[in-house]
C-alpha cells in the first residue's frame, strides 16, 4: 500500500506544449474538435471518455466517466438510462459539467452548460447503431438500482435475449440521449513548474468571450 508521504511526493512536470491566445480559434466548438481529433490521431487512451458531473436540486454532486457520442454546434451528446442516478439528477437540476483529460498530450478541457434530452428520433437512430448485445444490456440493466447479485443481472440478460431473439430490438422508453449545451469552455495545457496555460470561453449575449486564467 502506498504511504501518504509517497503520494505527496508524486509529481510530473509538463513541458510538451504551450497554449497562447493567438493559437485558439474564435469558435470554441472548432477548437474543441481540433483538440479531440489530435487526441484521436495521437492514439490517446479512450479519447472520447469524459467525466460528467451532475447534482441534486440541493447541490449534492456526483460524477462518473461516460463516452461522448456527438459534438456539434447544438452541444455534446451522450446516452444513458433516464432512470439512472445521473438521469434523476438531471431531472432535478438540468445543469452539468464535462471534463476531458488527455494525459498523453498534457491537456484537459472543461465544459459547463445546461442539459436537455435529445429528441426521440436521434435516440432511436443511435440505439439502432449499437451492437445487439449492447441493445440487450440497455433493456436488462436497471441502472443505478440495487440488485441482489451478478447472477440476477445475467438472468435478466438471458430473459431479454430470448424475448428479442426473433424480432428487432426497440429502444427502451427509459433510455436515450442527452445534450449538454455549453455556456463555458476552458482549455488547459500543462506547463512547467505548475504555471499552466488556461484559456476560457464564456458565452455572453450570444458572443464567446476569450480570456486567460491564472493557473
Summary?
The protein has 215 residues and is of the alpha+beta class.
Class, according to the CATH hierarchy? Mainly Beta
Could you tell me how far the N terminus lies from the C terminus, measured between alpha carbons in angstroms? 32 Å
The count of helical stretches stands at 6
- Listing every helix as H and every strand as E from the N terminus to the C terminus, the arrangement reads HHEEEEHEEHHHEEE
Number of self-contained structural domains: 1
Corresponding CATH architecture: Roll
Biggest β-sheet description: 9 strands, antiparallel
Walkthrough of the structure:
With 215 residues, this protein is an alpha+beta fold. It has a single domain, classed as Roll (Pnp Oxidase, Chain A), CATH 2.30.110.10. It contains 6 helices and 9 strands, in the order H-H-E-E-E-E-H-E-E-H-H-H-E-E-E. The protein has helices at residues 4-9, 28-41, 85-92, 120-129, 132-140, 150-163, and strands at 49-55, 61-67, 70-72, 75-81, 95-102, 107-117, 175-189, 197-204, 207-213. Strands 1, 2, 3, 4, 5, 6, 7, 8 and 9 form a 9-stranded antiparallel β-sheet that branches. The longest helix has 14 residues, at 28-41. The protein is globular, with a radius of gyration of 20 Å. The model has no long low-confidence stretch (mean pLDDT 96).
Amino acid at each position: 500500500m502506498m504511504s501518504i508521504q509517497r503520494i505527496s511526493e508524486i509529481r510530473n512536470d509538463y513541458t510538451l506544449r504551450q497554449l497562447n491566445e493567438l493559437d485558439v480559434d474564435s469558435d470554441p466548438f472548432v477548437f474543441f474538435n481540433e483538440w479531440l481529433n489530435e487526441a484521436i490521431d495521437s492514439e490517446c487512451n479512450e479519447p472520447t471518455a469524459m467525466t460528467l458531473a451532475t447534482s441534486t436540486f440541493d447541490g449534492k454532486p456526483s460524477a462518473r466517466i461516460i463516452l461522448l457520442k456527438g459534438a456539434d454546434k447544438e452541444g455534446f451528446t451522450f446516452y444513458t438510462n433516464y432512470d439512472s442516478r445521473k438521469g434523476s439528477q438531471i431531472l432535478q437540476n438540468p445543469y452539468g459539467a464535462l471534463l476531458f483529460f488527455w494525459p498523453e498530450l498534457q491537456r484537459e478541457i472543461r465544459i459547463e452548460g445546461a442539459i436537455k434530452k435529445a429528441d426521440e428520433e436521434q435516440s432511436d437512430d443511435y440505439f439502432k447503431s449499437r451492437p445487439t448485445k449492447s441493445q440487450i444490456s440497455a433493456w436488462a440493466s436497471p441502472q443505478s438500482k440495487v440488485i441482489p447479485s451478478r447472477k440476477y443481472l445475467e438472468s435478466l440478460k438471458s430473459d431479454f435475449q430470448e424475448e428479442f431473439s426473433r424480432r428487432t430490438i426497440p429502444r427502451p422508453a427509459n433510455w436515450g440521449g442527452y445534450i449538454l449545451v455549453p455556456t463555458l469552455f476552458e482549455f488547459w495545457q500543462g506547463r512547467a513548474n505548475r504555471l499552466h496555460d488556461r484559456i476560457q470561453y464564456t458565452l455572453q449575449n450570444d458572443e464567446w468571450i476569450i480570456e486567460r486564467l491564472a493557473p
